[in-house]
Amino acid sequence: MTSESPGLRRRFGWRGRAARLWDTLRDLTTNSPARFAVGVFVVLILIFTLLYSLPAAAADGQRTPFADALFTAVSTICVTGLSTVNMYTHWSPFGHVLTFLGVNVGAMGVLTLASILGLVISKRLGLRAKLIAAGDSNPLRAHGGPVNEGQTVRLGEVGGLLATVALSTLAIEAVLAILLYPSLLMAGIDPLAALWEAPYYAAMSFTNTGFVPNADGLAPFADDYFLLGVLMVGVFLGQLGFPVIFTMARKKWHFRLWSLHAKLTVITTMLLFFLGAGAILLLEYANPRTFGSMDAWDTTFQSFFMSAMTRSGGFAVVDMGELHGSTLVVGSMLMFVGGGSASTAGGIKVTTLAILALAVWSEAKGRRSVEVFGRRVPSDVQRVALSVVAWGATIVALSTITITQITQAPVEDVLFDVISGFATVGLSTGLTETLPDPAVYVMALTMFMGRVGTVTLAAAVAATSRSQLYSLPVERPIVG
């Protein structure tokens, strides 16, 4: 009998462990893509936390406290825009580059990013991975039951969707940066500094993050409607979502040929945009601390700007802490809804709101099914929409109660910042910067739950689904 040398055993042992780890990752991408997606975001957050903790990332060369580094990493990867430190003065150029890269990685979305990494590992997209990738535009894809192919991107088009995500991100941000650069020069920004600030603003607008590359934020550009308008366009495109961009790229402006998801997303987005602006204008036009000193045109424009930013944009010209309490409530409602599915925006998503509104309307009309644009919405989608709202409201409520108890701050300020974190908006009344470490961890968890998505988390916990081959007797409880 021949004996292997210790070096040979160590060599083959290392290779064996590496092969087993590789096989485990490959099986995870095909058998449980939702858990893999959550794992990808966790790993990214840990990596960026470590990088933000490095002395080189801070402007003063000192190590950033763990709570602040973790919060910044979560806010960056989850494209939220909230911060516990001054994002301009605290970080070094290396730290600002980390932020720029982090928001673009996070903007690709947890499911899309997981599908791309899964493709690299497994050399192919398995059927369940394709279902999950398509599921970001239609949550029914992650569940059993009949699926209407016209509602979302088909399985064979997932590769095209992934390519659209990367190409559209680069192309849109490049165009936005080109448009922003002249405005920055006219505002007196140094040409070399503007070469950095233009793509930075472009990335923060399209990813709906809202970080700014200067100390004064948007205050110097409060009257530059072209620059603010470009930012609004970037935020709006980011809110639409990649499936909608994919559909519009293929079908152009032929609205009748759009998928039902694209139709509902665009219509609901525009409806909320105008209704939100109208409500903000009505509530704030006489507030001397915000719009009271502006003329009619300025007030109208700023109302539309705030309506767009409360949907997930995160940029602000006026101090959120100076708004009326009623306006904060309207802003909280807009933030909770958020943008489109598979987009850079957060919230429960506009299609979720649209489905629930259609279900209520159908129930009021006595219809047996929910129908819109000549299509019937399956009951599975309605149940998922209801679940998303219920889980989202639960997360917001628990976080608000916990942070209020820790800080003893006014509940309206806590609620606004918690919803901003959950919906990955980034607007703040000023509370987030003053949070103690325990509340910082709660807010970071809230941002993570809001970005990963309640549907994804539910699918990750219950990775296996069982078919029920029998039906129980029906009994109707009293509702309402």
TrEMBL record:
Segments passing through the bilayer: 34-54, 66-85, 97-121, 161-181, 225-248, 260-283, 333-361, 381-402, 438-463
UniProt membrane topology term: Multi-pass membrane protein
Principal subcellular localization: membrane
Location in or out of the cell: Cell membrane
Pfam families listed in its UniProt record: TrkH
Keyword Transmembrane helix: yes
Keyword terms: Cell membrane, Ion transport, Membrane, Transmembrane, Transmembrane helix, Transport
Listed name of the protein: TrkH family potassium uptake protein
Organism: Microbacterium fluvii
Taxonomic lineage from the root: Bacteria, Bacillati, Actinomycetota, Actinomycetes, Micrococcales
